[in-house]
Amino acid sequence: MTSQVIIQAIISGILMGLIYALIAAGLSLIFGLMEIVNFAHGDHLMLSMFSTFWFWMLFGIDPIFSIPLTIILMAFLGVFTHYFIIRKILNSTMLIQICATFGLAVTIRALAQFFFTPDFRTIKNPIIQGKFEVYGVFIGYPQLFASFVCLFAFILLYLFVTKTETGTALQATSQDRQAAEILGIPSNKMFALGWAIGLSCVAVAGSMLSNYYYVFPDVGVNFSLFAFVAVALGGFGSINGSLIAGVIIGIVESVGGLLIDPSYKLLYVFAVYLLVVILRPQGIFGRY
Amino acid sequence: MNLISKELLQAKNEPLNYFNKNSLIIIGIVVLGLFLYPFISPSKFALHLLMMIFMHAVMSQSWNVLAGFSGQISLGHAIFFGIGAYASGYFYTKFQITPWFGIIIGIAISAFIALLIGVPMLRLKGHYFAIATLLIGISFQVIFQRWPEVGASAGLYVPINRDSPWLSMQFHKNKVAYYYITLVFFIITFFLVWLLNRSKLGYRLKAIRDQSEAASSLGIHVSKYKVIAFIISAMIMAPMGSIYAQYVLIIDPNNTFSADISILVLLISVMGGVGNIWGPIIGSSILIPISEFSRIYFGGTGRSIDLIIYGILIILICIFRPSGIVSLIPRSFREREKVK
Amino acid sequence: MSNLLKVENLSRSFGGIHANSDITFDVNEGEILGVIGPNGAGKSTLFDLITGFTKSDKGQVILRDKNITNIRPDLICRLGVGRTFQKLKPFADQTLLENVIVGALVKEKNLKVARDKALEIIDFVDLIEKRHHYAKELSTGQRKRLELARALATDPKLLLMDEVTGGVDQRTIPGLVELVLKLKKNGITVVTIEHNMKIIMDISDRILALNQGKRIAFDTPKNISQNTQVIDAYLGTVDAA
Ligand SMILES: Nc1ncnc2c1ncn2[C@@H]1O[C@H](COP(=O)(O)OP(=O)(O)O)[C@@H](O)[C@H]1O
Ligand SMILES: [Mg+2]
Known about the structure:
heterotrimer; B: mainly alpha; 16 helices; 1% strand; globular; C: alpha/beta; Rossmann fold; 6-stranded mixed beta sheet; 4-stranded antiparallel beta sheet; 9 helices; 10 strands; binds adenosine-5'-diphosphate; binds magnesium ion
């Protein structure tokens, strides 16, 4: 095995990992705010991909231009989800919270199958396509572009949370809801904002993925599994943690597939999760 | 003798458990009715529907024993369904071992796997536990999809045997035998869980579920009992896999180790009422007909209509009736009548 | 008089906070030992250390002649140490009777026998009419009695009570105090954390005073009330009513 092959695997892993990271960041943000795991996160990703697909299919808008439209759609969906469902189960048991977001996942996926059929779809001839070679390592333009956009979105998210007033309020609510309320930060609004941002993250990731990935109703499943792993590794609620964890997962997936057997890719990632949480239940970067 | 000791004497004379006579009679009549039903109206679809309701009631009872009695939320319970299906199917296909014994092998392997999974998982709490079970469940599916010995993705075709239906547990002429087998398992399971509920073990498990620290301050070895609950739960699930395998005669990783099954058993329990032994029956009686009827009316094309209804129902239950449909039934009918 | 419990140099910190540092004291068979100290002094942590809910950094807990430092809580219970929690932990979805039966099952193998024993103890804590009520339906004071009954059902030689009179209806306090004295009469050794100075002075044989994780006094009630350190740390700041 040449070093080129390994470098190729690592680079592909990092490119994919940045996408996992952004998906996980959305999940982690929501969890950090209200201790709810959005089990429909993968299906929200699927919706973003379909949104991008339909903008292209119906109006001929290329994925790179439909990003803002998809973000707006998904952000609204996030606010609605919070308003009509999440808000009402905030004080329920963990089981009910799990069940409600699973119910949402089942509904979204079934609706997608009903309206979009289970067919696999692709966006043909997007603006960004093709690949280039450096020292025998091939890099696809859509993949490279997708991970740049995800990284850029990640940086924006980070700056928003740490540098803006609203972002600081969001963090305050995440750390101590009661204390934040006393300071006059309405937690309900913050939660809605959290859902809007969380789903905006998948909107960006989904738009970029649909440039080169099949779009179909079950597409979100594996992505959401990886997002759970990334969030657990990074520590529930830690946005920075999910960046590093997402990249680690991307590398484990592609290098593991290269060195051992590509058909067990899922298992390598799961094995990392199990090892980490059993040995260190608070995640690699988690505080508690 | 003062008043207080009179009350104590009276309390000691109360029976340990209250039996609600009315509900006992109702249960007796319903059970009798279910046994006689095939003679009254042997419609193929009705028998199939009832059988599916029993089977899913047992499957979600298995989940309910774990969550309702010990507070652990599993998102990978299809593991034990799959093990049951593959155990009976594999040993019959390869070694002609009767599926009846295959059921027992399936139970034993499930118990062992539950022990192997359960012990390291003890350290995980809440979401970490739930997500770990989700991933382990999918791992089983991935492994079986690629394991040539058990037919990989294509799965196993149970060889048809028309000569000795009882030995091969295959009933081609009249499927009513499957109905009775499932019914008997259903009744046995519910009776055992009912006993468990009022046993010493049941008291300890419910203590762990409600407040595990308090339980350990009362001499309960929490880890040990959590693993025991996991094992019992696995052992309830496995036979349903075996029976299902004999019923459809095709076992593949997608119809046995499927995440959909893991989620379905959870949804049924929550629908009916978690931690209540009637919850799974109620949940199954509501949700299973939805999918069976939609299969009839919409055929293959509208397969996901049942899931749309499921999903919406579950969300509504979570918002408006988090303790499940069972909580709509007046308490006196459900258990002790003598609440002061 | 012989020592039932000996605690030596017990220490535990959480991050930078020294919740307990070098706590040493002993409990005589049959006595009531009062534990006092302002909020955050480390009283509950001390109970958690003795009953195995928190691991100690240093030091020993010796029950009779057996070293029970850092062993599992359920084993400590089986060795005869019962406890209640300051932050109540009832089995909320079960009845009072079912709560207490769980405790009785530690010693009794038969459910019926355990039930009868549970009923006697429920009668002892004066809640017999409430036996079929769900724990979540009981008042705070009743839930404190529930926890007491549950711990008593395990047949403890030593009972640790964390603020039994805290946060309950003032009128029920005399009843609770009477209950503690009844325990002593029945030969149970009691260590009780208590904020009410009058009660603690009345019922305790000896008092352990903690402040900021350290032992500041360990003496008879009379001497404690004259100890300047205790007065500074505690008595001075609290209305001794
Ligand atoms: N699990 C814990 N994690 C972090 N700090 C703790 C923990 N338990 C107690 N502490 C800290 O230890 C100190 C003593 O607490 P505690 O024993 O509850 O005091 P008391 O019961 O005397 O009011 C407090 O400062 C408290 O914040
Ligand atoms: Mg305290």
